[in-house]
Amino acid sequence: MRLLWSQTVPAPLRGLVLARERETLLAWDSQDNLLLFNHEGAIQARRPAPVPISAAACSDDGSAFVVGGSQVPMICWLAPDLTPRWQRPLLQRVTAVAVDPLGRCVAVADGAGTLYLMTARGRTIWKATTPRTLHHLAFVPEKRVLVAASDFGLVLCLAASGECLWRDGLVAHIGSLAVSGDGSCVMLACFSDGLYRYSTAHSQQQRIALETPCHLAALSYAGDRLLTADRQQRLYLRDIKGGLRDQTNLDAPAVAVGLGALADFALVGLANGAVLRFSELPVAANGASDLLK
Predict the structure, then answer these.
(1) Rounded CA separation 23/16 (Å)
(2) How far is CA 74 from CA 34, 136, 199, in A?
(3) How many Å separate Cα 74 from the centre of its chain?
(4) Mean pLDDT of successive 10-residue segments in the chain (293 residues)?
(5) Which of helix, strand or coil describes residue 144?
(6) Strand 134-140 relative to strand 145-150: parallel, antiparallel, unpaired?
(7) Residue 256 near residue 12, CB atoms below 8 Å
């Protein structure tokens, strides 16, 4: 693996999200510090979070960042320099958030099983009740569609109006959710069950068995490359069928991963506070990427 840069946050890392168009990265740690890195690893902004963080998200264009609180049930919209633009209290802790790719709206799930869609100014467009508490949310960039999942057993696809287009139940724990730009690939990382693949067009599932349990996954924009991480501190680059292209060992367990829109770089956040970016490497003659060699 060719490491382009590494940074270490002040306390154990709890999560990171990638603004794919700007290639900026928001990270947060166990002391609720927020840090914004540019594509070269330089810190662009650093602030204490306005609430203890239970979930965070950003727009693909880097124009908006959102954090949700647990001990203080609240949703906070942040500017590109991480200063708060508005805050709105909720009745229950925030369990998941997602920001529209262009920063036009935010989806918020709470501990009572309520899902909200709000404008960029905090006005509620609609809210819906779900059978289970949602822990994963993702907007589909090229469609007016939102995909959601609980941590166990429920996957939903919703229209921009809040109408449920389809739902499915899984007998599996869900560690992360990733979507391709056109929604043709919706990928769930399900620990020992491997990967489950859906499409926003229908609820038909395809199980992709892996050689090792997987709890984190990220997709390229086209959905043709997949980055996964397991609890044995290994990072994998795969094709869309789960086929292994490359792998590397990590120094600590991964808590979050990100993949560039063209799969030309990979990001990983480690439990020990390290944030790593791996650069693009040439494609080998057989077509296999050497990104993670």
Answers:
(1) 12
(2) 16, 17, 32
(3) 20
(4) 89 96 96 96 96 97 95 95 96 97 97 97 96 97 97 94 95 95 97 94 93 94 96 93 91 96 95 91 41 38
(5) coil
(6) antiparallel
(7) no
